[in-house]
Specification:
Blueprint lengths: L15 E6 L4 E7 L3 H20 L1 H17 L1 H12 L3 H19 L6 E3 L5 E9 L2 E5 L5 H14 L3 E5 L6 H13 L5 E3 L6 H6 L6 E5 L2 H12 L4 E5 L4 E5 L5 H13 L9 E7 L3 H14 L18 H16 L3 E4 L14 E4 L6 H4 L6 E7 L2 H8 L7 E5 L3 H8 L6 E4 L18 E2 L4 H6 L2 E9 L3
Parallel strand pairs: 5-6, 5-8, 6-7, 8-9, 10-11, 10-15, 11-14, 13-14, 15-16
Antiparallel strand pairs: 1-2, 3-4, 4-18, 9-17, 12-13
Helix pairs in contact: 2-4, 2-6, 3-4, 3-6, 4-5, 9-10
Bound molecules: nicotinamide-adenine-dinucleotide (NAD).
């Protein structure tokens, strides 16, 4: 592959763009608006760095462990910057930084296993595993660091190099993270690029990229897959969700209300696998609506940097407009706001935590992904109706079942068409588990050894068996 002279990873030939604080709606910093043309040199350097990085698994592990320590040490700078640009309460930003370090440590210890093939023939065959080359990691704005690490940690551990592109809404903490990692790892092994479209489109379709790992919305995921088709790069897509929580007849509402509420509202509902619909037995319906409405009303909403804020602003103005639109449409269609239902009258992108009852089942708030602090609660009469409704969208990321009889909850959970089903909680993931969506929620697998092997290709060696 030809090597072009390097322009410097963070030089922005196209100037810069403003980054807004969602708690005020005001710009507070700028990030380089790197141009698609700069990518050629960056990808060339990632390719050149791959030769050394792929060669020595022990050095890789040591580098990734050192990087994890450095990320942890930088938490006092990284976490407030993340809150400033993303909006989430500061303790949640600290948790995100901690998760980023934990992921580096987890993947640093994984090694591909050589597997012999025993098929009865007089041959010795074995499967070895090889890295792919430069990997493009494209990340949304809801968990900029955590989702980036879900991509770069397994890719780097497997011996690939990475070009990482954050969302233009949240480029700053990722740039800081990029500098921290660059200091701990060999040059050009991980490069952060920031800029507005068509930067992501160019990265996804770049001929020097061998794997595009993307997290974001379904429409952008389709565009990424189309772009990667031009170079036939591998694609891993983690896309949207519309997770249902089904409450069973015997559920202890008082006991679970708080947990269920936060499974829907943490990070202001901007989580792919947040609870986005609640199905409650008709005879318990009012009780469930009222319990969730009480949780919403007592939630402290405020800037993420204010001590005591439990819910920050929505990340950006288009997303606030989208959430307002979904809520208004549902209310116009006959829904009732048991709590909230309106944007807060203050600067920034704040929306009152909202519980909507009596939403028509085919309303877009139920069938699409609202990705905000608005939760529809729907009644059901028979459990098979609830399961059918839960499975009745194009998404299939996660789902949960809540009840007092573990056997029944397990049976219902087994009927959900999704990648992860939870019982009496929702949203928790282990670093060691596979994370994959059914239907339009994704292609490929992230997480655990599955995500690690997703960054490797099999290489088979055959030889006659020695006598
Ligand atoms: P998005 O699809 O708008 O953008 C995601 C990333 O893609 C950003 O970096 C963006 O700049 C980039 N991008 C935009 N156009 C592109 C193009 N044509 N080619 C390549 N890259 C392009 O998503 P968002 O609004 O930032 O995030 C919200 C969405 O992400 C929601 O749908 C949510 O469910 C999803 N999400 C999924 C997961 C998961 O693991 N399944 C996790 C978090 C978020």
């Amino acid at each position: 592959m030809p090597t072009t002279p390097p322009p410097g990873p963070h030089r922005a030939e196209g100037g810069s763009f403003a980054v807004l604080d969602p708690a005020t709606g005001e710009p507070f910093a700028e990030a380089p608006d790197q141009q698609p043309a700069e990518l050629d040199a960056i990808v060339d350097r990632a390719y050149a760095a791959w030769r050394g990085w792929r060669a020595d698994p022990d050095a890789r592990a040591a580098g990734l462990l050192a990087a994890a320590d450095a990320v942890e040490r930088a938490a006092p700078d990284l976490a407030p910057l993340l809150t400033r640009e993303q909006g989430k309460p500061l303790p949640e930003s600290h948790a995100e930084v901690a998760r980023t370090a934990a992921r580096l440590r987890y993947f640093a210890t994984l090694r591909p296993q050589t597997q012999p093939i025993a098929d009865g023939r007089p041959m010795h065959s074995e499967v070895r595993w090889r890295p792919l080359g430069p990997v493009a990691a494209i990340v949304p704005w809801n968990f900029p660091l955590q989702l980036a690490s879900a991509k770069f940690a397994p890719a780097l551990a497997a011996g690939n190099t990475v070009v990482l592109k954050p969302s233009p809404f949240t480029p700053l903490a990722t740039r800081m993270l990029g500098s921290i990692l660059a200091a701990a790892l060999p040059e050009d092994v991980l490069t952060v690029v920031t800029g507005r479209e068509p930067l992501g489109g160019r990265l996804a379709s770049h001929p020097g990229i061998r794997h595009v790992t993307f997290t974001g919305s379904v429409p952008t995921g389709r565009a990424v897959a189309r772009g990667a088709a031009s170079s036939l790069a591998r694609v891993t897509l983690e896309l949207g969700g519309n997770d249902a929580a089904i409450l069973l007849d015997d559920v202890d509402v008082e006991q679970i209300a708080d947990r269920l509420f936060w499974a829907a509202f943490r990070n202001c509902g901007q989580i792919c696998m947040a609870v986005k619909r609640v199905y409650a037995p008709a005879r318990r319906y009012s009780e469930v609506v009222e319990a969730l409405a009480q949780c919403a009303k007592k939630t402290v909403v405020g800037p993420g940097l204010d001590a005591g804020s439990q819910l920050g602003p929505i990340n950006n103005a288009p997303q606030l407009a989208r959430v307002e639109h979904y809520a208004a449409q549902a209310l116009a269609d006959g829904a009732r706001a048991a709590a909230g239902g309106y944007p807060l009258d203050r600067p920034g992108y704040f929306f009152a935590p909202t519980i909507l009852a009596d939403v028509p089942p085919q309303n877009p708030l139920v069938t699409e992904e609202q990705f905000g602090p608005v939760l529809p609660v729907l009644p059901y009469r028979r459990i098979d109706e609830a399961v059918e409704a839960a499975n009745g969208t194009g998404f299939g990321l996660g789902g949960s079942v809540w009840g007092s009889d573990p056997g029944q909850a397990e049976t219902v959970a087994g009927q959900l068409e999704c990648g992860t089903a939870w019982i009496n909680h929702h949203g928790e993931l282990s670093l060691a588990q596979p994370f994959a969506g059914a239907k339009e929620s994704g292609v490929g697998v992230a997480g655990g050894p599955w995500g690690f092997y997703g960054n490797l290709r099999p290489f088979v060696v055959h030889r006659p068996q020695e006598a």
